[in-house]
Predict the structure.
Amino acid sequence: MAIRVVVFDVNETLSDLAPLAQRFAAVGAPAHLLPVWFAGLLRDGFALTAVGQLASFADLGREGLRDLLRGVRLTVEPEDAVEQIMAGFTGLGLHPDVAPGIHALQEAGVRLVTLSNGAAAVAERLLAGAGLREAFELLLSVEDAGIWKPAAGAYAYAARACGVDPAELLMVAVHPWDLHGAAHAGLHTAWINRSSRRYPGYFTAPDHQVTGVDGLAAALTGSAT
């Protein structure tokens, strides 16, 4: 089947999380704790998914920060530090390759949606702030799917919301685990590899690999309708 809808992950795929490191530093915590915290957040979300449970991205983020910052000499009260870091999500920007890539995909005539393990409101603010909200037909969240990616149910929810077969969806992400889940749910996949990483051999290889969203439309030439 031809690809009819391009589905974007949001956190790290579209949004640049790097400025959050400054939020850690601003409250007195080491900036290098950002990737540690984010990885732990995902781990706990996956663990809940594995036993059929669901928690919000924000709740997991806050709990993870409370644990990670325990014992750190902060310059503000611990709960204030948690909230200041979490508030950083509302002010994130896009990677430089995203806007031109989205415009190119629009010109190619494909439908665009997002599917995030975070709240749809975060994607709303991110895309509206960049002037790209109108480019996206739907902003989907696993909170409505009832299960996190990479569980198959999350991708099935996206297919139902778009009114297409899973094989007509292309999942785009920087996270190999996301693409592995999508592939096993019957979706096509595209890996955004901005840092010349090696794709893990234990995951299903992506159908496409590009260095930025701005290379995606060209990679899909002949596939999108």
